[in-house]
Structures are given as structure tokens and as C-alpha cells.
Design goal:
250 residues, Rossmann fold, Arc Repressor Mutant, subunit A, five-stranded parallel β-sheet, four-stranded antiparallel β-sheet, 21% strand, elongated
Length: 250
């Protein structure tokens, strides 16, 4: 049986000593940490990587934690979040929770309580499906092979036969996983969008096309042909590695 990975906690806190102490206590509690002191760095990380929980200071040098939450929503990044702040105003607590925060901890705090509250949020997140990288892929999903490349959801990585190991974007991962799970059948554009982005996502076909181009270019850069991944004009796509269909052939 595969060992469960340690939860990764993204800490965005601009007080260096406090950030160091938080990371120390979380790692002693069998968690992994990634620490940044700016909201922009945290956003960049989450665009390319998965984290189980975000521990977020409200007052940051480049923008507020509330503003970062809005940026995450705009980028369709869902992550359980605990606000960590010296601001005890009730209006801020209400705002943070109304924005989708899972908890709000005021400084100073007990590290034992911090660990306990993080674990409580992680338990709730696991039970409500917040381990999803996209709507159709969970971080706990097993690796799979797509045209000779090994895709590992838990690390958001793709390994090519030439030995290159690269990070893969969330949406590209979702597209590959959905196509891999629906081999030999025509997948409509709408079905692919709904599967990866969600049923109510406002995503245009042009945006999907851009991600498909990125996938094709990624494989081409490592000498892998995607002849089995074809466009079915006016409908969508088909991934047909076994050659069971003539759809999409010229």
C-alpha cells in the first residue's frame, strides 16, 4: 500500500522569525511547508503546484490576504485557507470567512492550537473533495501514462521517455486525465470543459484550444507524436491510442 503523502501547507507570512517558527512546528507535526513573504510568490506557486492548505497573513507588503483570495478565485484555484493575522477586528474575521476562508486565527496564538486547527480544516477538506487539483483529478490519484509520458498528479509532474521531468499545469493535467479515461470515444468540447473546469465554469472554446496547443507543444518538444490525439472538427477531440476509430482522420 502506498504511504499517504504528508500534507503540504503553504505559509504566506512576512515576519521572518514567525514564519520560521510556524514551519518548524508544522514540520514537527508531520507536515511539509512552503514559505513565502509575498502574496505574489504564493500565487505563482499555486498556479503551478498543489498545496493542501494555505496559511495566509492578511497584512502583506505587496497586497492584502483578502486581495490574494480574490486572485485565487479569478484563477480558479481552490484551496482550504486559514487566515493568520494580528488584526482582531470582528469585521475582518467576518470578511475573511465570507470570502471562503475556513478559519481565522489571531496572533499571538498557541502552536499546538494552530496545528490542531489546521488538522481540523484538512479533515473537512478531505471529506468535501478539496483534494481535487481540477474537477476531475485528485491529488491522491495514481500516476498514469499518456503517449509514453508518465503523469504524476501528486507532484503535478510529467516525465518523458527522454528523462526530462517537468511541472505540468493543473488544467493540462485535467485534460490529459480526462482523455486518458475516455480513450477511443469522441469527447465534445463542452464535456471536456465541464470535466476539467466544472459544470458552471465560464470557459470559452478559444481558451480550451490554447491549453490543447500547450499540451501538443509540450509533447512535441520531447519528440513525442500525438497522432492518436485528434481533433474532430465541429465536435471536439478523440484520444485513440489503440486505433479503434476513424474519427478525426483526414
Amino acid at each position: 500500500m502506498r504511504a499517504e503523502p504528508k500534507p503540504l501547507i503553504l505559509v504566506i507570512e512576512d515576519e521572518p522569525e514567525l514564519a520560521k517558527l510556524i514551519a518548524l512546528h508544522l514540520e514537527q507535526a508531520d507536515m511539509q511547508t512552503q514559505v513565502y513573504d509575498r502574496a505574489a510568490y504564493g500565487l505563482k506557486f499555486l498556479k503551478r503546484n498543489f498545496a493542501n492548505l494555505l496559511l495566509l497573513d492578511i497584512n502583506l507588503p505587496d497586497q492584502s490576504g483578502f486581495a490574494l483570495m480574490e486572485e485565487l478565485k479569478k484563477n480558479d484555484i481552490s484551496i482550504p485557507t486559514i487566515f493568520l493575522t494580528g488584526n482582531a477586528l470582528e469585521t475582518n474575521k467576518v470578511k475573511g470567512l465570507d470570502m471562503g476562508g475556513d478559519d481565522y486565527i489571531t496572533k499571538p496564538f498557541s502552536y499546538a492550537e494552530l496545528v490542531a486547527r489546521i488538522r481540523a480544516v484538512l479533515r473537512r477538506a478531505e471529506s468535501t473533495g478539496d483534494l481535487n487539483v481540477t474537477k476531475n483529478v485528485k491529488i491522491s490519484d495514481d500516476p498514469f501514462t499518456f503517449c509514453g509520458a508518465k503523469v504524476t498528479p501528486v507532484r503535478l509532474e510529467i516525465e518523458f521517455p527522454d528523462g526530462a521531468v517537468l511541472k505540468i499545469g493543473r488544467k493540462e493535467l485535467g485534460i490529459l486525465a480526462y482523455l486518458n479515461a475516455n480513450q477511443g470515444v469522441v469527447v465534445t468540447r463542452k464535456a471536456l470543459i465541464h470535466s476539467v473546469w466544472g459544470l458552471h465554469a465560464d470557459v470559452k472554446s478559444r481558451s480550451l484550444d490554447q491549453y490543447i496547443v500547450k499540451v501538443r507543444e509540450l509533447f512535441a518538444a520531447h519528440g513525442i507524436s500525438l497522432d492518436s490525439f485528434r481533433t474532430v472538427h465541429g465536435i471536439g477531440y478523440i484520444f485513440d491510442p489503440a486505433g479503434v476509430s476513424n474519427e478525426g482522420r483526414d
